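The instructor's notes for this session suggest beginning with a concrete chain rather than abstract definitions. Hand out the sequence below and ask the class to guess, before any prediction is shown, which regions might be ordered.
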Amino acid sequence: MDKNFEARLSTWKKQYSKQRGSYRTGVWANIDSHPLDTIFDDLADLYQNVPDQQRNAFSKIIVMLDHEVLDCLLYIRRIGLRLELTKQIHLFEYAIAITSLCVDFADPRDLLMSIMLLIYGAKKAGMNTENYINNYMISNDPKIKGLFNKAVSLSVRNLELTIEWFGPSEWKKVENV
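After discussion, reveal the predicted structure:
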């Protein structure tokens, strides 16, 4: 890894340590303006911009503790609503990057629910998620693609329950998901 990468990662760790856990005071508050949104956007951008051969090494130097994994899961969920509100499609790629970083640490069920909310928001933003997942994902990790494909294939009822239990209030009274 080069010095610029190490400096950016060090800066990210310092910024994160100041905001760690702050999503939990209001998971759906301050969408697109919460400090952790920016902090995780920076980490995702850093992950996306390392050369492919260094991406695996990057994933190995990020060791996540439970609170970091939870913040990652909440970030992925929040991206769904951010996509709907801002139509910034690059955020979907950011969510994939953060998914790639936490896949080895997160409970697969929690990660699947987060991905379901992400995909729902992406669809509300007009994104063709199935095409994107199959043809454009930055992650070639079969675990990541498998989780995204499973999230797409789950029943409407599973999606409705996930939104009801974990989604933002704007999505709670969804008809014909």
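Then share the key points. The longest helix spans residues 66-86. The radius of gyration is 15 Å.
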